[in-house]
Amino acid sequence: MAPVIEISGLRKTYRKLMRQPHHALDGLDLEVRPGEVHGFLGPNGSGKTTTLRALLGLIGTDGGSMRILGEEVPRRLPQVVGRVGAVVESPQFFKHFSGRLTLRILAESAGIPATRVDEVLEQVGLRDQARQTVKSYSLGMRQRLAVAQSLLKRPELLVLDEPANGLDPAGIHHMRALLQWLAHEQGVTVLVSSHLLSEVQQLCDSMTIVSRGRRIVDGKVADILAGHSGSQMSVRFADPAEVSEAVEVLMEAGDNLTVTAERDRLLVSGASDPAWITKTLADRSLYLTELVTETKNLESVFLELTGTAPQAGRAVQVGQSAPAADPEMTVPTGADR
Amino acid sequence: MNLYKAEIHRFARRRLSLIFGICGFAGLLLFSAVLAFNSQTGPTEAERAEAREMADNLNADYDRCAEDEEFFEDPEHVWVSEEPHFDDMTHEEICAELFPAQAQEEDFLYVYTFHFENEGTGIISGIAVLVGLLAMLLASSVVGAEWSSGGMANLLVWHPARMRVWGAKLAAGLTVCAAAVVAVVALAFVLLYLVAALRGETGTLDAAWWQDALGRLTRSLALAMGMTVLGSSLAMLGRHTAIAGGVIAGYLVVGDLLVRLAGFALNVKFPNRFSLYTWVDAWISGRVTLRDWSGRFEETMTLTATDAGLLLGGIVLVFTALATWSFARRDAS
């Protein structure tokens, strides 16, 4: 089946007088298949919201092409927008309007019957707060209202920017169930940008990770995790002073190993057999007290792929990527195992 | 059409619309009540008698002063001889200045009579312009608040055809303005006519009066609508209510004064022609004649409603074109 969203080589540069141009999108590609929940991930300043804004015609672009439901956008956006529901960057509403009035005016503007307003308020759990003014809503309730307005059109494609923003755990659970029901029961394609990686891991079928305005990886969530999982082992000693000696021992004995020393433990990647580590260290009279195999989660894969892993004594700036680990702390091995 | 109706509802349901509506209605009632209180159909007999007595007293004082050459030697009036102002005056001239001669009963009758035929159209067209000012603020608030709150981006996600959105907003603003002006003018007409009938003079409202009144009121309505478009356009350009409000208030309060003062300072002929108020007056009145005495002879300059319409319409057109261009081209954030 043809993709619901196709973005190819998208470029967007912000230019300001007396400043260096900022390339928010640098040839970004994105493809979303029908009927799936697709996660759109990236560090702050990586171009996620810019992409969604460009896709929805809010900002112009400097190159590339975009298609929604087979129609070229932004040229054909007015023709296709009736099939798209979207929330970009927690939209604010007139704060003195009630939730219901806010939705009614939007529904009226698109010729949607008023009865649909109560249906979506029920769907997002705002039925009892519908008559309250938006001013009295919490952040989470405003987020629900934003999602409600995106559902008004019974969209074939739902584009949501940080939909779980401000929601409490019950709200997140509710939102996840709603989006999965829409995608898997109603056939709605959902594109979700989010920073909540565990949420994306639970919610999404596929995902695209972007950094510095470019796609780094895309595919099924499970495939991406499997492709980058390569489990690592945590090794502890009774005497933390033995950690540095153990680094040297493993470095000499193994090939294609990554050994990272932390305060009181070692992290070893690339060793398939825990017994080899135990034996190698014991042969040099280094006796470990704990050896645990740690499986990578989406967060560690994300940090590794985007190069935004936190480093000792150094902050990763917004819009910048850095090596995943401190070179001083990571020891690649050179000898054969 | 759906978008237009939705925009009308957005205007109508705004809190500022309600506040302006209530204030406008209350202000009109208050103005009518004050006018009714101040206006009288004519002085009473008692008021006439009191005025006649005051005039007679003043005339008697003058006569006593004029007939008595030693009047100012009286201790009560001796201060006159010490006042340099009176040094070069004759005795009679001093008397005339202190006790105006030939005072009449009318000079002491302080009765105002509201005359609808003479004053009604001017007051009602003034009220229409005030409604236009409120409509301008409301229109700029609707557009500006939508930009500053992020609501505009949300609206554009629903309706990406920007010119359609802009057109609907302008059309809704114009509709609300026209409806408000017509309603307020009709109400003002009824109230002021009642005041005149009960506490003043209605006069004769003949065909010529109606023709003049309808012309002025139609031009007032057009001005109010132009102000509404200008308010929306400024807010669209500035993307904030405060920017539009600041530009409008800044010009009306300070800008116009500065322009006029600059005209005077540079010794330009007819400096008032640089004031927008002059052109607004010409538009509503149909004709304004400016006079200049800076040369040896008085010179005049006539501004007609057509001249004013071209200038004011041109200003609105320029700002609307800029706002349209800006909305079509700039990113929405």
Task: Describe the protein's architecture and organization.
The complex is a heterodimer of chains A (337) and B (333). Chain A has 2 domains: 5-226, 3-Layer(aba) Sandwich (Rossmann fold), CATH 3.40.50.300; 231-295 and 307-334, Alpha-Beta Plaits. With 337 residues, chain A is of the alpha/beta class. Chain A is 32% helix and 27% strand. With 333 residues, chain B is mainly alpha-helical. In chain B, 71% of the residues lie in helices and 4% in strands. Chain B has a two-stranded antiparallel ribbon with strand order 1-2. The interface between A and B is medium-sized, with 30 and 29 residues.
What brief labels describe this structure?
heterodimer; A: Rossmann fold; Alpha-Beta Plaits; five-stranded antiparallel beta sheet; disordered C terminus; B: 333 residues; mainly alpha; two-stranded antiparallel ribbon; 2 strands
Helical region count of chain A? 11
Q: Reading side by side through the largest sheet of chain B, how are the strands ordered?
A: 1-2
Task: Enumerate the spans of chain A where pLDDT stays under 50 for 5 or more consecutive residues.
Answer: 322-337
**What distance separates the N and C termini of chain A?**
47 Å
Proportion of residues in helical segments of chain A: 25-40%
Major sheet of chain A: order of its strands? 6-7-8-3-9-10
The rounded Rg of chain A comes to 24 Å
- Name the largest protein-protein interface in this structure: A-B, 30 and 29 residues
Order of secondary-structure elements of chain A = EEEHEEHEHHHEHEHEEHEHEEHEHE
Distance between the termini of chain B: 26 Å
Number of domains of chain B: 2
Which overall shape of chain A is indicated by the principal axes computed on the Cα atoms? elongated
Category from helices, strands and their pairing of chain A: alpha/beta
Provide mean pLDDT of chain B, rounded: 89
Mind describing the biggest β-sheet of chain B? 2 strands, antiparallel
Order of helices and strands of chain B: HHHHHHHHHHEEH
Question: The CATH topology of the largest domain in chain A is what?
Answer: Rossmann fold
Strand content of chain B: under 5%
Give the tally of structural domains of chain A: 2
Radius of gyration from the alpha-carbon trace of chain B, in angstroms? 28 Å
